[in-house]
Amino acid sequence: MKVKIIKGTNQIGGCITEITSEKGTKIIIDFGEDLVEKKIPVEIEGLTTGISSYDAVFITHSHGDHIGLVSDINEDIPIFIEKETKKIHNLSSDFMKDAKPIIRKTEIITFGNPIFIKDLKITPYIVDHSAYHSCLYLIEGDGLRIIHTGDYRNHGRKGVGFLNSLKKIGPVDLLITEGTTFGRSNDEFKTEDELEKEAYSIFEMYEQVLILQSSTNIDRLVTFYKASNHTKKYFIEDLFTATITSHLKKTIPSPITHKNVSVWITNNYYKKPSALKEMYIKPMEQYKKSKPFHHDFCMIVKPSMLEDIKEKLYEKGLLTNACIIYSMWDGYLKEESIQNFITELEKMGVTFLKLHTSGHADKKAMKQVENIIKPKKIIFIHTEHKEMANEIFQNIINLEDGEELCL
Questions:
Q1: Domains of the chain with bracketed CATH
Q2: pLDDT over 70 (residue 34)
Q3: Burial of 343 by CB count in 10 Å (0-12 exposed, 13-18 middle, 19+ buried)?
């Protein structure tokens, strides 16, 4: 078996991993965009251009830096993807500028059910991450076993299940895994449950709570929904968030499935093309309610909602004791739109607070993974500081992009 990290040995996001069996069966795991403002296409002979030489592509989760370029893959190469991951990606693409939905045929994976690509056996398992229904892959062939974790953590709502899956898998020959948090000071992150309890205290202090978080971080959405219920607040989702939640299982809080959840459709959406209005606004209009704004509420917000917040809440005196909770990676605070949004809210008397825990593995989680599956070799990708792995882990193989490892 041969392993090549086409991209990802010295960067976070945009990782592409190639695995080839002795008989020449060749697969790719993840095909996403780089985390840079200017999106650069990736051309790979036999994958995106020329005669196809790859047998399949497997996607770990719905974040753009893992799935964002799949539409560029040659049509005759099968793409394997979990159904909720595909759904979230396509819904998100309809709301995001320059994003491409997957319109081609794909093969849907099911957790725990193996897929056979010639002489390779690939089995997906659910992992704990800030993207709903993320997965890892166990690749077996040539008498060898490889795990590609994708992005993961163990301090979220699926942490125990993730570790149990690893125990079922057992020892492997190679672990390909993320080192996103190398270079950050945290050895252990807060759990989602700890975050929820902190949210209780904040929600009790403020009458109106605005939340700036990723709409696809369902774990976090559930955290704030529970805190909202605990403090008897109405829960309000913006149109994008409500669209995502209403297409997932019924236990996820959405305006369609939960009576104490409503949607706020801001004016900017009514300026969108008619196709978006027909598909997403019309089905949600019946779940709009004005009553929640006259009581204590918690609302998921976006920077694009600023003018509506100013005109329909602040100027009407509906922000009496409000805070904005920022619950994303600190790096996004450098973006001009987010800086401006927070500054303008503070001018309205809204208190800025941060309450977040990472979607990625801390050092404790990484060691747990190593101890459970006892890999003979480890390759760290999705990191800008792979040299730090040598301080913590054993059996490290330090590859550069394009370099090949023969097992």
A1: 2-184+359-406 (3.60.15.10), 192-354 (3.40.50)
A2: yes
A3: exposed
